[in-house]
Amino acid sequence: MEDLVKSGFWSGRRVFLTGHTGFKGGWMALWLAHLGANVRGYALGPSTDPNLFTAARIGDVVDDVRGDIRDAARLDSSMREFRPEVVFHLAAQPLVRYSYEDPIGTYETNVIGTARVLDAVRRTPSVRAVVSVTTDKCYENKEWVWPYRETDPLGGYDPYSSSKACAEIVSAAFRQSYFPVDKLAEHGVGIATARAGNVIGGGDWSTDRLIPDLVRGFLSGEPVRIRRPHAIRPWQHILEPLHGYMRLAEELFAGAPGAARFATAYNFGPNEEDARPVSWIVERMTSFWGDGASWVLDEDRGPHEAGYLRLDASRARCDLGWTPRLRLETALEWLVQWYRAWQSGLDGQQSMSGGKMQALTLSQISAYTKLLTG
């Protein structure tokens, strides 16, 4: 199986990407455009200020359409008019703690929104491959030491996690009802879901996420309050799962009969040694950042969050030839480099319109690409 950076597959490819104004969607939009794809992004405006979309000038390289994935008429017309060949669905309400504050909005976006996207695909004859992105938290988490496989039961303690389990079920139902695998030669559409762990990288300013919380604290000079230092997560640089999503779309696009086995769920997680506790991440981040960066234990643990969670990515390794390439310590160095560069422009009152952060983001994409071909 030829890798995307060798194949030239994405050059000129028409890609419809929901969630392009978000952290993960912004990195994906920039990478796809860098590979020569014609990308239409569909999303609400950025949810934070600052944000990656603005800092890295994502709007300069994609067809930027603003809309809600729950708005069926606008979504349908935007997708059909663009005539995409590949659809990546990343738009979501992505925060566990916020889902406790707005459970209905979380379910509407993550469940009904996913159904709307897949229903729009039904009315867009040009589509050949769909990758619907969920999360590692879609599993019924038993807090055991074994990594979860794609065949393990779905669940979710909190509204966010359960909404993503529901999105998995919705995606499977649309695949079975409208795009069955055994009739792929007739309808020509392959649908898969992708489940990734905690992603890190430059440009994430979300609330209640470890890395953005650390960066905000470091920039302010205040000790960062850490809730659950012993919680273990499958940390990985954002480019790792994005590479997996693109590999998956390539195989789905191939069509029948070969693509049939790829129309299923895939985990994308780091190597076992990079499933680290929060405290390990915090200590290295403070060390890399310097300047007296520090943290303290937050006694208010907040609502329930998983304490231990790991993924088994054997299926992705076997089917897609996908393997993690970037060690976690290097990923942390890259993201500190990104935020430090952004800070230098801020402190010097330099305008980000010159493309500094886009160039740095692309340089990290290029460095990762070299790892794929090395």
What features would you describe in this structure?
By secondary structure, the protein is an alpha/beta fold. The chain has 14 helices and 13 strands. The chain has helices at 4-7, 23-34, 52-55, 72-82, 96-101, 103-122, 159-178, 184-187, 210-220, 239-253, 278-289, 314-320, 328-347, 356-373, and strands spanning 14-18, 38-43, 63-66, 86-89, 129-133, 190-196, 199-200, 224-226, 232-234, 236-237, 265-268, 275-277, 295-297. Strands 3-2-1-4-5-6-11 form a seven-stranded parallel β-sheet, with helices on both faces. The longest helix is centred in the N-terminal third of the chain and has 20 residues, at 103-122. It is globular. The chain starts with a helix and ends with a helix. The relative contact order is 0.14.
String of helices and strands: HEHEHEHEHHEHHEEHEEEHEEHEHHH
Largest sheet: 7 strands, parallel
What general form does the structure show?
globular
Spatial strand sequence of the major β-sheet:
3-2-1-4-5-6-11
Mean pLDDT comes to: 91
Beta-strand content: 5-15%
Helix content: 40-55%
Total of helices: 14
Low-confidence stretches: 348-354
Distance between the termini: 16 Å
